[in-house]
Each structure stands twice: as structure tokens, then as C-alpha cells.
Inverse folding.
């Protein structure tokens, strides 16, 4: 009988960190402050996402409604 080490278990886990950062539709977060160019950008894992926020402003809670290439389309969640 063989006992797996914690390292081996983590490597064989079916949900990788990469998968976690690519399934973003329906997830919610608080929209941060835009950069100097007025763009909202979020880093998740090793990927840089541009946020198309519509009517939402910094500090609003938003939900991802669609993903396109490197763009996340979000909508404001009413409180």
C-alpha cells in the first residue's frame, strides 16, 4: 500500500488554479479604482483582464456576465 504525500495530492487534484481563473461568468466582486488611463484592470492568476463595467463605478459590487478574450463584461448588482 502506497501513501500519497501532500505534494502529490495537490498535483493530482482535478481542479487546477488555471481552471479556477477561467470560469468567471456569474462570479461577483467589488469594482476597484481605474488606472491612470481610466481602465479597470484585474489580475487573476497569470492573466490580465480588462473590465467593461457599463454603468458601474469604483466601489460597486458587480457580476461577470460575459467573457471575451481578455475582457470581462460586468453588470452592477443592486443592493
Amino acid at each position: 500500500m502506497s501513501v500519497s504525500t501532500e505534494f502529490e495530492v495537490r498535483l493530482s487534484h482535478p481542479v487546477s488554479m488555471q481552471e479556477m481563473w477561467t470560469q468567471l461568468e456569474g462570479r461577483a466582486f467589488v469594482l476597484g479604482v481605474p488606472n491612470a488611463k481610466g481602465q479597470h484592470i484585474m489580475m487573476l492568476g497569470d492573466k490580465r483582464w480588462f473590465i467593461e463595467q457599463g454603468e458601474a463605478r469604483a466601489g460597486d459590487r458587480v457580476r461577470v456576465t460575459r467573457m471575451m478574450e481578455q475582457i470581462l463584461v460586468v453588470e452592477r448588482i443592486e443592493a
